[in-house]
Amino acid sequence: MFSLNPDQLKISRQRFEESIFFRREYQQLHNPLSWTDYLFDLVQTGQFDQVLDQLNQPWDWTPGQLAEDELRSHKNLAICLITELTSKSLSHHLLTSDIGFSLTDSSIQLLEKAQSQLAVSDCLIAFIYLLMEEIQDQPRQSQHHLVILTKKYIHKHFNSKIRIADLAKDIQTSASYLSTIFKQEEKMTIQAYIQQERIQRAKQMLVHSDLSLTSISQLTGFTSQSHFGKVMKALEGMTPRQYRLKYNKHYSHI
């Protein structure tokens, strides 16, 4: 039976405060949320080589220490990433729950048997590869097939002008019917989804590149830098410049 143990609460609070103090004292940063969002975007779009690049390149942040034993900590970090990628896949309706949880359980079971950090990394990479395979193979029965086709079209053409009439013609339906189905399924218009996707791509560029705001607006399909700024402000509550300054600590000029 669950209940709050005051002694355990005291110990947990003390450990938490020590962890915060240590990281602030030595200026060690946890992985930013934008990094895991970017990694998930690579996973869901099937960019396996880019996933490997992200995992292999030097980081400007320090992974958390989740156990005193180094191997145990490495396992826990891998489990956290496996769990987060699975959770994001399920919330985006890219997997059925039985597939997602079965893949997670089996991968963690194998990972727990690993006797070295290299073996843990091998298990993590194998999980990511299988996850990407399953995402590509899933029929996504929870979504209307026209919605799935629409999203694929937008993901492919987000950096160019998208006319709903052209989109509908490409997937062999009428623009009015497609707009109705999409709004019913996604609770937003196709145009709103396009803007949302463009902003997600733009956020990645703002954090992971030093491209100018003009270049980013062009690469993500916005008609102008000012239009990009207005949409970003509406969806994120801050301008592209403010977002970059907040999340890209190495950026030196705009």
UniProtKB/TrEMBL annotation:
<protein>
    <submittedName>
        <fullName>Helix-turn-helix transcriptional regulator</fullName>
    </submittedName>
</protein>
<keyword id="KW-0805">Transcription regulation</keyword>
<dbReference type="GO" id="GO:0043565">
    <property type="term" value="F:sequence-specific DNA binding"/>
</dbReference>
<keyword id="KW-0804">Transcription</keyword>
<feature type="domain" description="HTH araC/xylS-type">
    <location>
        <begin position="148"/>
        <end position="246"/>
    </location>
</feature>
<dbReference type="Pfam" id="PF12833">
    <property type="entry name" value="HTH_18"/>
</dbReference>
<keyword id="KW-0238">DNA-binding</keyword>
<dbReference type="GO" id="GO:0003700">
    <property type="term" value="F:DNA-binding transcription factor activity"/>
</dbReference>
<dbReference type="InterPro" id="IPR009057">
    <property type="entry name" value="Homeodomain-like_sf"/>
</dbReference>
<dbReference type="InterPro" id="IPR018060">
    <property type="entry name" value="HTH_AraC"/>
</dbReference>
